[in-house]
Specification:
This protein is an alpha+beta fold. Helices cover about 35% and strands about 15% of the residues. The protein has 2 domains: about 230 residues, Cytochrome Bc1 Complex, Chain A, domain 1 (2-Layer Sandwich); about 190 residues, Cytochrome Bc1 Complex, Chain A, domain 1, CATH 3.30.830.10. Helix 11 crosses helix 15. Pfam families: Peptidase_M16, Peptidase_M16_C.
Length: about 475
Amino acid sequence: MKQILLTAALLLSGVPALAQQSQASTTAPVPQLTAGVRRTVLDNGLTVLTKEVRGAPVVSVRVEYKIGSRNEAPGVNGIAHQLEHMMFKGTTDRPVQFGRLLSALGADFNATTFYDQTSYFETVEREKLNAVLALEADRMVNAQIDPEKLAGERNVVLSEIEGDENSPEYRLGRAVQAAAFPNSPYGLTVGGTRGDIEGFTADKVRAYYKKYYSPEYATLVIVGDFDTKAALDAVQANFGGLGTPGTRPVVTSAPLAGPTVEATLGNPHPSAPIVLREAGATPLMQAVYPLPGIYSPDVPALSVLDNILLSGRTSRLYQALFESGLAADGGTLPSTFRRGGWYDFSFTPAPGRTPQEVDAALLAVLGEMRGAPPSAEEVARARTQITARAVLGTTSLQAQAAQLGYDATTANDYRFTDKFLQAVSQVTPQDVQRVAQKYLQDSSRTVGYFEPTEAQAGQESSAPPKRRHPGGL
């Protein structure tokens, strides 16, 4: 499956324990998105989250593995993504394409690899729940990984990489990310690098699979119109006998393959811009600032800060970049993961404008955020919008299952978003200024410009910029 990342609305970041926040004015009650969720842990360590939702007779199922590109080092970059592809090539008991088996069930299905997790998901009629569970249990332990199948899927992955590399935005992003986090797996691409992928053998991929694809590394999520007792009986029947005999502890996370992003906080980053002068049609600029990991008590205030910077036509960066005519497209993406994160600012200059002009305007706005707290009205509006996006972003069964899976896997707490929204409701203007001063210093950023060697083409956009896709606050 091509690497598909979850939408930003499903990747709200926060902190599980959420240390004491500054006191704020009384706010409306915060919605509890996890009401009705039941957590069960099998003896083999498999975590199961179930949530009955009455309505259409369908269920959404996800299997989340606590393994992703953050666990890779140079030389094996992309192995999680490569294995994701192999998981659709059949098992010893079912030596056929799993896509065919799932299609025969009428399933809507896919898979994704990300920094902290790999996910497999299906939505089916409720009568097909046991059949889906049987398929997921089978490929958890019996996937066929042989040289012939690997060769075919290696070519598919390499084709995906080639498509990505045709994008100037991708090439600039890779250069900036690698310079910002040169020794961290978070500085590697999720999809993998050509040289590493070409070196994967069936033995190497199989060893990775055997090491990490097991019940104690997995979370199973079931959301929809089903009976919990019957579903748990089916889970026990399909998954209970997997893994090492005896009671197994739940694994919170696989080891990180290298230094954390958090280790770079406060360190000076490259002062000179990275400049790519290559074939292309449109100039670009991108700036990345290191952020703390998902457990930091600063993350809710960073989310409010981002909303104030770029959310709608009255937001500060919209006024400074788009209303002014400096930028034609772009957006912001603050991302927080297990062991660090980053704040990405990426923009396309308007025709006749340069990346340097856009960057100067960006720096001016960030300087204003450091210099004075935002208004109470801005903060209140941001808190309301963040909560609304969280609620509206989880209206479908698939979205609810994805949120639970992400929270349980990356944050290690399925109630994570509830706690995050509670913390957001307490953020003050002073909190926002404090995190801007702490994380958005000019010296902490890595910036890059793409300067095309061909004539610029592109049209100015009058619409608000799209929030950049995925992984963030």
